[in-house]
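Incident log, support desk, overnight shift.

02:14 A customer reports that sequence design results differ from what the structure should imply. Their input is reproduced verbatim below. On-call engineer (initials T.W.) acknowledged and began investigating.
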């Protein structure tokens, strides 16, 4: 577990958390080089710690869950026409005319 925490921190600092290029021995390294080196180190850590089967099973389960979700997800009701959106109050009213004219207060 400590190995993967160290690799996670390396990914954060060397790839995701920097703005400029990585400079090593007065030479700047390209993003592709950093990506390949970090990927290789991650794969080697997976092999040497013998967790490859666990990762493979987790990836298979994740792909199956995403596939089942994609197969059964209904997309027909995701979009509304403008009239039903206005009736349901889904459109923005900032800077537009009110839907109903407002009158003054009524006496009860």
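02:41 Re-run completed on a clean worker. Output:
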């Amino acid at each position: 577990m400590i190995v993967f925490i160290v690799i996670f921190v390396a990914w954060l600092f060397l790839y995701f958390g920097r703005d400029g290029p990585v400079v090593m021995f007065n030479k700047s390294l390209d993003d592709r080089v950093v990506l390949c080196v970090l990927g290789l180190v991650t794969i080697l850590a997976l092999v040497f710690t013998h967790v490859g089967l666990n990762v493979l099973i987790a990836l298979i389960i994740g792909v199956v869950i995403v596939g089942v979700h994609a197969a059964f997800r209904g997309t027909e009701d995701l979009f509304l026409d403008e009239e039903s959106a206005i009736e349901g109050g889904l459109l923005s009213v900032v800077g537009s005319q009110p839907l109903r004219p407002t009158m003054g207060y009524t006496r009860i």
